[in-house]
Fold:
Amino acid sequence: MDGGRHEQQRTAHRRNPDPRTGRGLRASNHVPGFAVGVYHAGEQIVVAHGTANIATGAPMLEDTGFLFGSVTKVMTTTLVLQQLERGLLDLGTPVVWYLPEFAASPSS
Structure:
């Protein structure tokens, strides 16, 4: 291919980013930046893309902090109910059976 055709493709990609890419996801969902983490089979992968602060232009980094607020309650409930559906959790079983470190310390 000639150089002019490559430049046309790059320019078209900038105007119409592929929605499967980080830039495309941000553009199609009007999101300035995001970080995604996956932990599987003992391996952790974190990818950050875009802008963390639109006022300052600070980039999104793998260790950028986020304020979650009450969102964690919904996430935790969803994850617990998914484990229930898979038969890996029984809501009637005390939490200390699954997480022994939650056991109350002996009173003195």
Observations:
- Residues 8-14 have pLDDT under 50 and may be disordered.
